[in-house]
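Our consortium's second objective concerns turning raw sequence data into structural hypotheses that experimental partners can test. To show how far this objective has progressed, the report includes one record in full. It was chosen at random from the queue rather than selected for favorable results. The single chain below, 138 residues long, was entered without modification.
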Amino acid sequence: MLLGAVMQQTGLISTTVTNAGFLPALYVPLVPLPGWLVLRQLPHWSVWPTGLSCPLGAFLLSGAHELSIGIGELWVIASALHWALHMLLVGRVVDRQGAPFLVAGGQFFVCALLALAGALLFERVDRAALRAAALPIL
């Protein structure tokens, strides 16, 4: 989860708002692919046309007239693969645990701790900026 979020946010630095709006939707058609290739779970036939229409619909809704692929777009597209894998993993864990809220809360907690550790290691922490952002963070 953290890797997908970091890759997506890295891409957001150098892509347009329009591309950042629809490129993450690529995870939808990507979810059945590793499920089929890795887990040997053949999805229902209806998954393919609906999954492939999702990015097209997101593209049309975004109002983009053309798609240019730069480094930011590549980061966001790569994050979509991580989100697809994350969806598969969470689905399997929830099936085994039978506790979706515990799994969701646990993954957000671990992701937050790892992100905080990374921020403390690699970013300058400004107390005034942290105070100003405290309410949105909460």
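The partners drew two points from this record. The chain has eight helices and no strands. The mean pLDDT is 86. Both points have been shared with the crystallography group to help prioritize constructs.
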